[in-house]
Each structure stands twice: as structure tokens, then as C-alpha cells.
Design brief:
The chain has 186 residues and is an alpha/beta fold. 56% of the residues lie in helices and 15% in strands. A 5-stranded mixed β-sheet has the order 2-1-3-4-5, with helices on both faces. The longest helix has 34 residues.
Length: 186
């Protein structure tokens, strides 16, 4: 059986998510597991797909980063699938497909996964350096706390007699944040 897996990090990535589903359907996937969660979150549908596949099946994804968090995670998933007699096929690899049932593809997937992880680490390093420099120049102060951005509305609602618990629910912030804002506004 050909089993597909699609994932995007956020629900707002509709086009990318739909594109993955279309690609997986075109690749002949008979069953597709899909979810919209960050790779650092628990990926229930991926776990379900890994339990579902059986000897002779192929798990298909559009890109390695849709399946794995890191090179180590990717290799762990490949090993877990191999122990079950299942291959992993990655469709969008610069015009070529990779299938872990072939030794060369497994090597390429490992190398490409390591490069992607390295690029991500470099990007985060540059981001941290940029934030540090901007902070030193007084141009970056970080994201304003959510409750502080809603301070005027919190005070207004409390002035209208709305209870702090109800304000917290209505504005999707913690009750403690409501009390902090009200204490500082007093």
C-alpha cells in the first residue's frame, strides 16, 4: 500500500497543505495522514501513519522536513520503517525522488537532511546576531506581552463591570495577566 503523510506548521499555510495533498494523491497514495502542527509539537498523525504501515508498504512525503525535525529524527524514522519492511519515498527533491529502499537514495536523504539542519542552524544563528545588534542599538525591544497590548481593553472592560475571569476568557489571556494589568493601571 502507498501511504501518504502531509504536514504544515500552521493552519494559515493552506496553499502549501493543499498542494501536498494534491501531490500525494497524484503519487497514488491510497491513504493519506495529514496534520497542521509544528514539527516540534507532538505529531499524532505521523505516529498513526507509522503504526499503520506494514511490510511491503511505502510511506510517501513531499519533502523530508514534512516528516522529520532533524537528521537524527529522519534517520530514526527511516530505521523504524525499515524494521517493519516499509520504505520512505520523498517526492520533491530538486526534480528527483528518493526512495529509502535504494541504498543511494538513503545516502542522499541523509546528506540532504544534514544540509537542511545545518542551514536552519545558520539561519537561527544569524537571527540571534541580528536581534542582539538591534537590541544594542535600541531598535529591538522584543515582542510586547499579549496582555500589555490589550491593556486599554482590559481596563475598559473592568470599568464596565466585567469580572477579571470573564475578561481573561474573552481576550484569551490568563487571569493572572488581567490582574497584573489592572494592578499596574491603578
Amino acid at each position: 500500500m502507498i501511504v501518504g503523510y502531509a504536514r504544515t506548521s500552521m493552519g494559515t499555510q493552506v496553499a502549501g497543505f493543499e498542494s501536498q495533498l494534491e501531490i500525494l494523491e497524484a503519487a497514488g497514495c491510497e491513504r493519506i495522514f495529514s496534520e497542521q502542527v509544528s514539527s516540534v509539537s507532538r505529531r499524532d498523525k505521523l505516529e498513526e501513519a507509522l503504526r499503520f504501515v506494514r511490510d511491503g508498504d511505502t510511506l510517501v512525503a513531499t519533502k523530508p522536513d514534512r516528516v522529520a525535525r532533524s537528521t537524527r529524527d529522519l534517520l530514526d524514522i527511516v530505521d523504524q520503517l525499515a524494521r517493519k519492511g516499509v520504505g520512505l519515498r520523498i517526492l520533491s527533491m530538486g526534480g528527483m525522488e528518493l526512495d529509502t529502499k535504494q541504498a543511494t537514495s538513503k545516502l542522499m536523504l541523509t546528506v540532504l537532511g544534514a544540509i537542511a539542519e545545518f542551514e536552519r542552524a545558520l539561519m537561527l544563528e544569524r537571527q540571534r546576531e541580528g536581534i542582539k545588534k538591534a537590541a544594542e542599538e535600541g531598535k529591538y525591544k522584543g515582542r510586547a506581552p499579549t496582555a500589555r497590548r490589550k491593556e486599554a481593553l482590559i481596563v475598559k472592560l473592568r470599568g464596565q463591570g466585567v469580572k477579571p475571569t470573564d475578561i481573561a476568557k474573552q481576550l484569551d489571556i490568563s487571569r493572572a495577566s488581567v490582574y497584573r494589568v489592572l494592578a499596574s493601571a491603578a
